[in-house]
Design a protein that fits this description.
The complex is a heterotrimer of chains A (246), B (293) and C (950). With 246 residues, chain A is an alpha+beta fold. Chain A has seven helices and eleven strands. Chain B is an all-alpha fold and 293 residues long. Classes of the chains: A alpha+beta (246), B mainly alpha (293), C alpha/beta (950). Bound molecules: ligand MGD (2 copies), iron/sulfur cluster (5 copies) and molybdenum atom.
Chain lengths: 246, 293, 950
């Protein structure tokens, strides 16, 4: 089923706030835990206690430094999972139909029982959002927690992705980016959310909120600290006057 | 990209095999009987063997049949169809020729077209990937076809055509390398666009998401030292083109020389293919501290 | 044309059952929902109802399942059969293990109980473990606070009755400007992140003061990349600016602090610098209404900040005048301090101005009337919406106590403590130093100690000294070297025990602390001390018992190992008697309970300690017939009473005090009798209990009658105990007075000058002590560590998931040093301190103070420990900075070895470290190589493919 649907009814995805993410990796591990127990094969770890451990993860947090032309260097933490692209090249390259994009909500999934583990979809994804399971040898990727967000065995409030539910800083938001009135769309609008690598033509659904400006220039507020009295002795005089008023 | 032995062998061997089969399909050389049998056997061994090697790359080769389902969108699926169909057509053509001594020329032509198509489709698996700028270009297909043609010509014992195609391939390869070197920078993807932070200043990876390896770093963040690559490029061209052409041009051309030329070419193409993967930088490297070279 | 989309099961069953308990991956103690499948732990997520984490969970918490299933789990009691440190052990029965321990401890108790040193790590059952140690009778008990953050805790308690984390936190919902000093992660891990998230959502300003701009500091709107060890000076400069501009909360200072209290100014008086008191011990102020002296808490008194008084020939002036005098001095002018602190003078002014603007011009008012302890009614609660949080970055320096005091002074001058938008205490805090016990050390063989070990000293009389004036404790806590070491000094135990200074001991008993590795300073040295033998070939430290759950480095050095369960397999109690989980708006405590039974021959340590106490016939552990009083820890939790009506847990007690709503059930919260079904009630409620602070009591807690009454009702104390903040810290002055020659208990001469210089009753700044010992020219670079958010000290490395995130640690080097040394990616460096050298991989970081290098804490591992392969990157590339941080400062020619600790509290000065670095050819591994130990657990699996429900 590797033809992409012309349109999807909804565009479910994540909005990640780079102004707020502290880089704690909580979303990485919550994702690992949920998806090990749920959708498809468990996310395995090869050489788990050895010299070269390699496990499958669906979400990873990178850290980048930015050196502006002036002012101190800045540092940002950037979580990254599948962006559920509208023009998902990972889907169209798949020879088996294992990779597909859902018509109803735009979620990109791998049907593991059809996957031959050729790895081509991982090559096609510019973002590194797909990882081959080191033991099961099928392609793993973010499911947008499709088995949580509609899950009737979960209380209503828990029907959101594991990574969103766990994010301590509230840097992750989930919703329908196809609906301009949704909270996530509004947030993207208000904060100027961006696409990663737009030039790759993938039209990602997930958006990133850019950091607010850092390290504002000095001096606007200088007058606030007018000394109460030019004379050193004057302080006590001021104190006396001030105390009269309290 | 990680230069996996299985895919290097696959592209190299199947390219040569289909090249040879294409020649045989159009009747160059016009062989018959047991000579035809040997030629076709070589062709099938190379093409089929290459395909077998490709299945080694699969996590679940037992499900390989599923790869035939998505020919509408997937070049890999098309490759499966094209190669099997081509091998089928050429097989019938060869059987008729070898067993019954009948040359069904249209079938031969069809087979030859299939061979070319198969090599083209294989090349498109790579050339269609925008995420690997070096590959994402018509020259990828052109070179796949050229190598296939040179290998085919050499195997088919076509001295002068071989010389011609080899020279063209060599020059093409040289130009493609040069053009390829600039393609990443031209594709527009930078660590700035990858992070959306480019407008703030110079962006640099501070810490990767994991201190060890991952599937991604192993598979797609393969780095080859530039010096090393330059040297290999020369060796590859020497083996794949210069040496064979030299041998072909020897006045006293001889079967042994031809065999050496073929082997040298094979070794050269293996080098070329190793470089094809090893030098190809995937844009995901931007998330792992790799900048366009 | 499209083929049909595959069917996806979107509503799979999630689990058979959810069991709610408390996380143990760090001391934040979040509530967790443990999803069970087939009776096994399948998935862990945050408990949405929990007051601490409100449903969120950090990486470690979510990875708890891999901790619970770790191949490094100990399986049975172990007896050492090879040399210490070799990792050669033999499994023995619990009876043999407990009998061995009992026999040894029984003999010691009858002869010299102080020869047992029992020290515990970051477990939160200190009220229980100390109770054991007290009943046993050794003075040598403490937990880990001495090497952790005692500066922060004590400076807060002595100044205002609490600091951060378990004591208090910013009013995240109201604060408009937040300054964070020296925090990478902290204990209050999820609440800080939740709080920062709230600030970010509101667009409130965050300033991060930290030499390193990672983690929380990375999201700060403004980064102050301060030079390590100079925060005190920076803060005092902010104070200078605020005072000079009169931008301070005078009303708050006069009503809520000891700023108006009168100080004796007679330099000849034995009371010089002490506060004037009434005969019944109340501090005196001048009442502005009458102009006359009055007790500070007199009804209707309006204390005068500018008061002075001459009485019996002695002049007195208010504390506030001392404050003004000291900090208005040009020594603290931004221009003066800028170079030292590494911050531009204008920037310091601007930050001060920003604080003033937000505190006073953006003040908030809540329409909540309240009545203060003087009987004055206030119609509104006035809030100063600036807030602060700080931790080890300012605490783990040898000037940390005074720096933390300076920060508290700053908050208080702004009127931003216990007011809306500022820093708020978490009940049962605030609790001033005077409401805490004093330390006790009187030993009587065969008898309990004369009182609790740890506490707060208020002067020389409270020190723990023997009759000949020597330190009474093995760690020398509460001695003249560190008179206010309220948490003990765990980092000195091994080195003192090895040196037999102040005396030799017999048994070291460690619980949950990796003292052979990352919690020790001078790790290589410590490993030698643990294995050192005397002339007869006996170990210098004769007997080492370790209670641990995993095969840590420390376990390798034990003679006897008592294997604990994992946190999902035992009862635990997070008690108001200890370090509760309260939030500012609610008091709360919690439990852990066995959501699964152990599948190994291991036992919960607290139950083991109860068993041991009973075998030793300790008072409180046995009933009148000598039979064990408690079957196990669960029994103790439910039935033990500290004071009548007060037990380990405050929820669901039995009694007449029952609130209206609970009359029928006879259940009550806070005070009440033991309830056999209490633990079940906790389990039913999600593993915790919490009660909201009434609205009218939510702020101004120390002075608010509504809060005081509620606190008494809850059992925090037995009668209302309002108090004012101690800007002038009198206990410090009492030690100074002794150093000046007053009083009968006198410090040794070599310590006099240091005590005079550092134990100032008002906050001061002095350069970190190492600067005076290490040559700042030869060692020009500061070297720090930071907590990785996804790792907990040494124990995260056994976690198959987490170790992939941090499997090795480079030393991060700032741009200037990076270029000067010609480093490039993959290079290695030799890092030399005055004490030693290490060889480590380096990496570049631009967002870093230019004189500072740092690395992640505790990633390096000893070969063979933690069930990792010997070629694991943790053991080959990973490293500890601890090898080059000594517990003693280098000799400086006075014949003395000074501890590398804060002179007030004894806090280990981890971050005073100075080094130089140089590039070296890449070695095959990081150095030093401390050798390896046998793997004492079975080989781990090659792959982990965990799926319970399949
Ligand atoms: N994930 C995780 N959480 C933990 C722990 C863990 O191991 N892992 N450990 C727990 C424990 S035991 C503790 S004590 C707490 C400690 O929590 P933190 O106090 O956050 O401890 P550190 O990581 O040591 O952070 C010290 C910070 O201070 C900075 N710093 C160092 N020197 C200075 C200085 O002079 N001035 C300033 N302004 N900053 C400075 C460092 O760069 C670093 O960011 O964390 C607890 N929480
Ligand atoms: N360089 C440098 N060194 C430092 C610091 C620093 O900032 N820099 N920080 C210091 C600070 S603040 C601290 S608190 C220390 C922390 O250092 P430690 O207190 O030594 O902490 P851990 O390494 O976590 O070791 C705790 C031990 O508890 C064991 N354990 C884990 N779970 C259980 C359990 O359920 N039961 C039992 N019985 N045992 C268990 C582990 O196996 C381990 O042996 O490190 C200190 N060391
Ligand atoms: S992010 Fe990658 S895997 Fe996900 S839809 Fe886009 S291309 Fe496919
Ligand atoms: S790895 Fe699986 S999902 Fe990916 S392209 Fe191959 S068959 Fe499709
Ligand atoms: S949405 Fe679900 S699968 Fe995707 S990253 Fe988040 S937790 Fe992982
Ligand atoms: S959990 Fe939230 S704050 Fe932590 S790394 Fe993920 S997105 Fe960032
Ligand atoms: S902060 Fe993380 S590790 Fe600590 S208790 Fe909470 S969930 Fe557990
Ligand atoms: Mo700590």
């Amino acid at each position: 089923m590797t033809a992409l649907p012309e349109t999807t009814e909804r565009k479910l995805g994540l909005v990640i706030d780079l102004d707020t993410c502290v880089g704690c990796h909580a979303c990485v591990i919550a994702c690992k835990g949920w998806n090990t127990e749920n959708y498809g094969a468990p996310l395995a770890d090869a050489d788990a206690y050895g010299a070269d451990p390699v496990g499958a993860f669906l979400n990873r947090v990178h850290s980048f430094e930015v050196e502006p032309d002036s002012g101190p260097a800045q540092l940002f933490h950037m979580p990254k999972s599948c962006l559920h692209c509208e023009d998902a090249p990972c889907v169209t390259v798949c020879p088996t139909g294992a990779s597909f994009k859902r018509v109803e909500d735009g979620i990109v999934l791998v049907n593991e029982s059809d996957c031959i583990g050729c790895g081509l979809c991982a090559w096609a994804c510019p973002y590194g959002a797909r990882e081959m399971d080191p033991v099961e040898k099928v392609m793993k990727k973010c499911t947008l927690c499709v088995d949580r967000i509609y899950n009737e065995n979960l209380p209503e409030e828990d029907r959101e992705p594991a990574c969103v539910r766990t994010c301590p800083a509230g840097a992750r938001h989930f919703g329908d980016l196809g609906d301009p009135d949704s909270a996530v769309s509004q947030l993207v609008e208000a904060r100027g959310g961006v696409d990663l690598m737009p030039e790759q033509g993938t039209k990602p659904v997930n958006k990133y909120l850019p950091p607010r400006p850092r390290d504002a220039d000095i001096d606007v507020l200088a007058p606030y600290l007018e000394p109460v009295d030019a004379q050193p002795k004057g302080f006590l005089g001021w104190l006396d006057r001030a105390l009269e008023r309290i | 990209m990680h230069p996996a032995v299985s895919i290097i062998l696959f592209t190299t061997l199947s390219g040569m095999g289909f090249g040879l089969l294409a020649f045989l399909g159009v009747g160059i050389p016009r062989v018959e009987g047991w000579v035809a049998a040997v030629f076709f056997a070589i062709g099938f061994a190379l093409a089929g063997g290459g395909l077998l090697f490709s299945s080694l790359h699969l996590g679940h080769p037992e499900r390989a049949l599923k790869a035939f389902t998505q020919w509408r969108t997937s070049w890999l699926s098309r490759e499966a169809w094209a190669s099997v169909a081509t091998l089928g057509v050429v097989g019938v053509f060869a059987a008729a020729l070898v067993v019954f001594g009948v040359r069904i020329a249209p079938l031969g032509w069809l087979g030859a077209a299939g061979c070319i198509a198969t090599v083209y489709v294989t090349s498109m698996i790579y050339a269609s990937l925008r995420s690997v700028p070096r590959w994402h270009h018509w020259s990828t297909s052109a070179l796949f076809l050229a190598y296939s043609a040179s290998g085919g010509a050499l195997l088919a014992g076509q001295r002068w055509p071989a010389v011609a195609v080899l020279v063209v391939t060599g020059v093409g390869q040289f130009l493609a390398w040069r053009a390829g070197d600039a393609r990443y920078a031209a594709c527009g993807s930078t660590v700035g666009s990858a992070t959306g932070l480019g407008h703030l200043g110079r962006v640099r990876l501070f810490e990767p998401p994991h201190t060890g390896d991952s599937y991604l770093t192993r598979e797609m963040v393969f780095v080859v030292a530039r010096k090393h690559a330059r040297k290999l490029r020369s060796i590859a061209l020497l083996l794949a083109v210069v040496l064979p052409v030299g041998l072909l041009l020897l006045p006293a051309f001889h079967h042994l020389g031809a065999a050496v030329a073929v082997l040298s070419h094979l070794a050269g193409v293996l080098c070329v293919r190793w470089l094809f993967f090893a030098e190809a930088e995937h844009v995901v490297g931007l998330y792992y501290g790799r900048r366009p070279a | 044309m499209t083929s049909p989309q595959p069917h996806v099961e979107t509503s799979p069953p999630v689990s058979d059952e959810v069991r709610k308990t408390t996380c143990y991956m760090c001391a934040c103690r979040c509530g967790i929902d443990v999803h069970m499948k087939d009776g096994k732990v399948a998935y862990i997520e945050g408990n949405r109802d929990h007051p601490v984490n409100r449903g969120v969970l950090c990486a470690k918490g979510s990875a708890g399942i891999m901790q619970h299933l770790s191949p490094a789990r100990l399986r049975a009691p172990l007896k050492r059969v090879g040399p210490r440190g070799s990792g050669k052990f033999e499994e023995i029965s619990w009876d043999e293990a407990l009998e061995t321990v009992r026999a040894r401890l029984a003999t010691l108790r009858e002869t010299a109980p102080e020869k047992l040193a029992f020290f515990t790590g970051r477990d939160q059952s200190q009220s229980f473990t100390s109770w054991f140690a007290q009943a046993y009778g050794t003075p040598n008990y403490a937990a880990h606070g001495g090497f952790c953050s005692v500066n922060m805790a004590t400076a807060g308690i002595y100044t205002m009755g609490g600091a951060f984390w378990e004591f208090g936190s910013p009013d995240w919902d109201r604060t408009k400007m937040f300054m964070l000093f020296g925090v990478a992660e902290d204990h209050d891990s999820n609440p800080i992140k939740i709080g920062l998230g709230k600030l970010k959502a509101r667009g409130a300003k965050v300033i991060g003061v930290n030499p390193v701009r990672s983690g929380y500091n990375a999201i700060a709107d403004e980064w102050v990349g301060i030079t390590p060890g100079t925060d005190g000076l920076f803060i005092l400069s902010l104070i200078h600016c605020l005072l000079k501009a009169g931008r301070i909360d005078l009303s708050y200072l006069s009503r809520c602090t000891n700023a108006p209290v009168l100080v004796n100014e007679d330099t000849k008086s034995p009371d010089h610098g002490l506060l004037l008191t009434t005969p019944d011990g109340k501090h005196m102020v001048i009442d502005r209404h009458t102009g006359k002296p009055a007790p500070f808490d007199g009804a209707g008194v309006l204390p005068d900040l500018a008061g002075s008084l001459r009485r019996a020939g002695t002049s007195h002036r208010s504390v506030f005048q001392h404050i003004a005098e000291r900090y208005l001095s040009d020594d603290y002018a931004p221009e003066k301090v800028a170079r030292t602190v590494g911050i531009d003078a204008n920037r310091i002014r601007r930050i001060a101005a920003d604080l003033a603007r937000v505190a006073f011009d953006e003040a908030i008012e809540l329409d909540r009337p309240w009545t203060d302890f003087r009987g004055e009614r206030h119609e509104k609660m006035i809030g100063r919406p600036v807030s602060f949080h700080a931790m080890r970055g300012i605490s783990a320096h040898s000037n940390g106590f005074q720096t933390c005091r300076a920060l508290h002074l700053l908050q208080i001058l702004l009127g931003a403590v216990e007011t809306p938008g500022g820093m708020r205490f978490k009940p049962p805090y605030p609790k001033p130093a005077t409401a805490h016990p004093k330390p006790h050390c009187r030993v009587t063989p065969g008898k309990p100690l004369d009182g609790p070990h740890l506490g707060f000293t208020h002067g020389p009389d409270d020190l723990c000294l023997t009759d000949d004036g020597q330190p009474a404790r093995i760690d020398k806590a509460f001695s003249w070297e560190n008179p206010m070491s309220a948490h003990g000094m765990m980092h000195m135990v091994i080195s003192n025990a090895h040196a037999g200074d102040p005396y030799k001991i017999d048994t070291l008993f460690f619980y949950m602390a990796n003292m052979a590795w990352n919690s020790s300073m001078n790790t290589s040295g410590v490993m030698n001390m643990l294995t050192d033998t005397d002339d007869n070939g006996n170990y210098v430290i004769p007997n080492i018992i370790v209670a641990d759950a995993y095969s840590s480095e420390m376990v390798g050095y034990a003679d006897l190992v008592l294997p604990d369960t994992t946190y999902l397999e035992r009862h635990d109690c997070i008690s108001l008697l200890d370090r509760p989980i309260s939030e500012p708006g609610a008091v709360a405590d919690a439990i852990r309970w066995p959501v699964v039974e152990p599948d190994r021959n291991v036992r919960g340590f607290q139950s083991v300690l109860l068993d041991l106490g009973a075998r030793l016939n300790l008072p409180g552990f046995v009933d009148d017939d000598g039979a064990p009083k408690y079957a196990d820890y669960a029994d103790y939790i439910a039935n033990h009473e500290r004071r009548p009506g007060i037990g380990p847990l405050a929820g669901w007690r039995v009694g007449d005090g029952a609130a209206e709503s609970n009359r029928q059930t006879g259940l009550t919260h806070g005070r009440g009798g033991p309830n056999g079904a209490q633990i079940d009630a906790y389990i039913k409620n999600g593993g915790f209990w919490s009660a909201h602070v009434p609205d009218g009591a939510a702020f101004y807690k120390p002075w608010n009658t509504a809060y005081q009454d509620w606190a008494v009702e809850m059992g925090f104390y037995d009668s209302p105990q309002p108090y004012v903040f101690s800007l002038w810290c009198e206990p410090l002055r009492r030690f100074q007075l002794a150093a000046e020659g007053h009083g009968t208990r006198q410090p040794p001469d070599h310590l006099r000058e240091r005590i005079k210089a550092t134990l100032d009753p008002l906050p001061i700044w002095y350069a970190p002590l190492e600067d005076g010992h290490a040559d700042p020219v030869e060692y020009p670079v500061h070297a720090l560590t930071q907590r990785p958010m996804a790792m907990y000290h040494s124990w995260g490395s056994q976690n198959a998931w987490l170790r992939q995130i941090h499997g090795m640690n480079p030393l991060f080097v700032p741009t200037a040093l990076w270029t000067a040394n010609g480093f490039s990616d993959g290079d290695w460096a030799r890092v030399t301190s005055v004490h030693g050298e290490i060889t480590v991989p380096v990496a570049h970081m631009a967002a870093l103070n230019e004189h500072t290098v740092w690395t992640w804490n505790a990633i390096g591992k000893r070969k063979g420990a933690w069930a990792l392969d010997t070629d694991a990157p943790e053991a080959t590339m990973g490293f500890l900075l601890n090898h080059i941080i000594h517990e003693l400062l280098p000799p400086k020619g006075d014949g003395l070895r000074w501890a590398n600790s804060d002179p007030v509290t004894g806090q280990a000065a981890w971050f005073d470290l100075r080094v130089r670095i140089e590039k070296v050819a890449p070695p095959r591994r990081s150095y030093p190589d401390p050798g390896g130990q046998d793997r004492i657990v079975p080989d781990p699996p090659q792959n982990v493919t965990l799926k319970v429900g399949s």
